[in-house]
Specification:
Layout (H helix, E strand, L loop, with lengths): L1 E6 L4 H4 L12 E2 L2 E2 H11 L4 E6 L3 H11 L5 E5 L8 H6 L1 H4 L5 E5 L2 E3 L2 H7 L6 E4 L11 E5 L2 E6 L8 E4 L3 E4 L1 H17 L7 H10 L6 E4 L5 E3 L3 H17 L2
Helix pairs in contact: 7-8
Length: about 250
């Protein structure tokens, strides 16, 4: 199994449009960067290799990778258009998504307890989301919707009937076939020039075209995590999430 992580953005919502701050993946909590935490968890999950899409201050992420990761474990992919829409970063990972390997997909700016990834990787579903029934974010979050316990909708703009709405923490597992289809949609969106907007629309497009039940899900409600998009998220990470991670389990 391989992993694809998006870490190219400039962190506008946290730092502002013209910032030169470190990538959010290098934020440190409890003496470890988010990136180091991810490396350790991925290794524990027997993930063979991490493909890291970089852009903003890529040299700092590469330096951190050289410092903490085993030789050859991290391969970087540079997105030269990292200041534009995040769909471009997903499309940069298209060759990896088409590699024929099962895939873990993840955002780089989430502080979380390892149990979330353990549960995802260990799921019997070949293609799988994790979801939280309790909303952790206050604005601009990605939703996962269920109907009779099955995934029916995903993203920020919802179109399908559902009976349960949850929050997506930014991690999913993909079968080789689904990963390749997501790559195709990402490339199609980029070629159309519609690069503004969330990358999740490439995933939801595949979801809508697959038979019901193709996309499974695992409930991680109660396991501590936070996606760090805003200053309030950063404060929550320090004051609430790190103590909860320490106590959890």
């Amino acid at each position: 199994m391989k992993a694809l992580m998006l870490a190219a953005g400039v962190g506008r919502r946290l730092y502002g449009n013209e910032n030169d701050d470190l990538p959010k993946a290098l934020l440190s909590f409890g003496g470890k960067s988010l990136f180091q935490r991810n490396i350790e968890i991925l290794k524990d999950c027997a993930v063979e290799q991490l493909f890291l899409v970089v852009g903003h201050r890529s040299e700092d992420l590469i330096a951190e990778s050289n410092r903490i990761a085993p030789d050859g474990f991290v391969k970087t992919i540079f997105n030269p258009r990292y200041r534009e829409g995040p769909i471009l970063s997903l499309a940069c990972g298209s060759p990896v998504l088409r590699s024929g390997s099962p895939m873990v997909f993840m955002d780089a700016d989430v502080l979380y307890h390892p149990e979330i990834l353990y549960r995802l990787v260990g799921s019997p579903h070949e293609t799988c989301f994790v979801f939280d029934r309790e909303f952790q974010s206050t604005d601009d979050f990605v939703k996962l919707c269920l109907l009779d316990g099955k995934v029916v909708d995903f993203g920020k703009a919802l179109i399908r009937e559902h009976d349960t709405i949850c929050e997506w923490p930014g991690f999913m597992k993909m079968s080789p076939d689904i990963a390749a289809k997501i790559a195709d949609y990402a490339d199609h969106i980029v070629m159309s020039g519609e690069i503004e907007g969330a990358y999740e629309r490439a995933i939801s497009a595949v979801l809508y075209n697959e038979p019901m039940g193709t996309f499974g899900c695992e409930d991680i409600t109660g396991i501590p995590w936070v996606e760090i998009d805003y200053e309030s998220d950063l404060k929550k990470a320090v004051t609430q999430i790190i103590p909860r991670i320490t106590r959890f389990g």
